[in-house]
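Re: the request from the purification team.
They wanted to know what the chain is likely to look like in 3D before they choose a buffer screen. I agreed to run a prediction and write the result into the notebook, where they can find it.
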Amino acid sequence: MHDAVFDFYMRSHRMNGYTEPGLAMFFGEQLLKNMDPLPPQDRHRRLKLAAGLLRQALLLNPFDRVLRGVVNQLANAAPASEIFTAWLGACNKALEDSEDMFVGEALEQAEEWKQEEERLLHTALSHESPCLRHACVIKLWELGNADMFAEAACAMAASEYGPLVCGLYAYGAMAAQDTPLCKGLLSRALINPLTLNLKAERAAAAGDAASARGLLLRSLDALPVQTHLLLRLHELETPAPPPLPETVRTSVLFYTWNKLDVTMDTLRSLLLSEIGDAHIALLNNGSTAFSPEEFSAAVAGVAQGRAVEVIQLPVNIGAPAARNWLWQLESSRRSDYTAFLDDDVYLPQNWLRCFLQDAAEHPDATVIGPRVVNPGRIPTIQYVARFFSQTDTNLIRFTNNAPLFMDLQQFTYRRPCLSVMGCCHLFNRAACERLNVPGFDVRFTPSQVDDLEHDIQVWLAGGSVLYDGRVTVVHRQDAGRAAPRTEAGWGHVWGNHMKMEMKITGGELARVNRSVQAADDAHLARCAAAALPELSPRARTFLVLCGLAG
């Protein structure tokens, strides 16, 4: 008999990569409730998962004294690894005499000051509370202020508490591509699972896959709840994406409304990436801020002789209809694969090579999409693989588009999922036609949820969606930091969401959810089976206990 509570929180954590500390504490509390009537095996599983979640949460904020107390209490019932135990001992020693503020108060204060970055910096540099200092450093990271983050992180690293957290801060430095700062912070950090993972990523980036693999295996032994490391281990065995196949035809399609300079930046980024002789079509969706002639001239100036098909519409027909229009172009219909872009993205050079490698290795993938980050000098997570969190008749709730803003490489892998972000996604045209996947629904005009709902339609038709976190796309709309919507704007968002809830039956949603979960489970099982011979007894025991490995 399955333990539904355990299954729910295990799956939720798997979708998160790392579960945000406050949420991890809630998960742990729920897992440890009412365990007495359970069979011994279920009690043991719940205890192991709860302890793992709470230990992971403490790595992200060791200054949470309530959390640290709970983690210490669980040490006898669920013994931790030698690496984690040594790190926890250092935390206890450094903070044993601290009468620090509660973490909730510190986080609220940092959030209140998010419009006052100088105040955040001043507090991070000199406040007597290490908990508040840490909260301010993290907030500067979230805001993407690279200079202030670096100054604050260095100040904390130099303090008596620095070795506890500067390994975490090193990820922010890595995201900012500040190699000296990353190396400096990492050199002062105590060994823990996060520092092992960062060393693994640095080794992988240097081409040393064997060292990277050894470090990830050591980290998984130190904290087996990091199930996403199984997917990272699998990626280390994946060859680099090959050159673009000469026999495959691809169309790259996008549309814009009133964003001339931003759209030209996107076109420039596209042309600088490795797309070979892919067909490009750009639709001017009834823009009023510039004339059709100005638009054509700007495209020609950026393209510099490269063929770009330009379509000028007299009125704005919205995103769903624009995509459908571009899809039905005769030039697009001759393609094997069609990529849709938003008009405000920066693309990595190898995005198409990666996606076409995915299509070759996963021929059942109908749609393929990337990891999306916010712009700025410290890119943070904006959008990753989405799943259902709850469905019923006239009810759809999705997982968070960014479960944790910090990019700890916890999403840098491939996996099946319900939906990917529509700012850069690739469609297998033959699969769409064979499955009779419908077009984008114009009822969601001008935009919002149209790409999410379309991915659900892909699954309903018998197709599948693949997330490729190796491909990092910068989305300039920056949903995570955008100005608050107006009441009318939120009304449109929720209105479209309600349309989606009314369009798809509860039975259809349940069928899609089963298919998505089965595909994701199967992929994780394959990754776990491949890693199993190399796993430590502790990691293997945890995965078997959780039903993630045979």
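For the purification team: The chain has 24 helices and twelve strands.
Please add any questions underneath this entry.
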